[in-house]
Amino acid sequence: MVKDGLSRAEAARQTGICKDLIRDTMKLIDLHGWQILEQRRIYSAEEKFTILQDMQENQLSLTEASIKYGIKNKKSLTDWKERFQRYGMAGLEKKKAGRSKLWRPADESMSEKEKLEAELQYLRAENEYLKKLQALVASLEKRSRKQRRK
After folding, report:
1. Looking at the 3D structure of the chain, how many domains does it have?
2. Helices H, strands E: what count in the chain?
3. Which range marks the domain in which residue 86 is found?
4. Do 1 and 23 fall into the same domain?
């Protein structure tokens, strides 16, 4: 729309998108091309650190840094900065997707204490499962009795 001659303000009115976002997106496209909008880039911890360093050394704003490095979401930079301040380089490492393993089976690399803790954790989880199963069976039996009475 803007490339077709509309002003950012007019494009913002027609689309309901903030004109600042339109401006920043157009700068991103001008610098990196239209394909930047389709790409999903995963940054390594070292790249994130380099970007944060550049922001600090050159006093770049979130907007300036996101446009310079082709980062579509400025919130990513805020998240990286907060995680780096809290956890250092470890905070910039890629997080594993999915649930963390609460229990792992005992193996030869574990000390005796760790093996016992793993077994305890397993037994606690099993106990919780059995309690929930028992409650479910009781609930189904109760519902079944109510339906038979009708």
Report:
1. 3
2. 6, 0
3. 41-95
4. yes
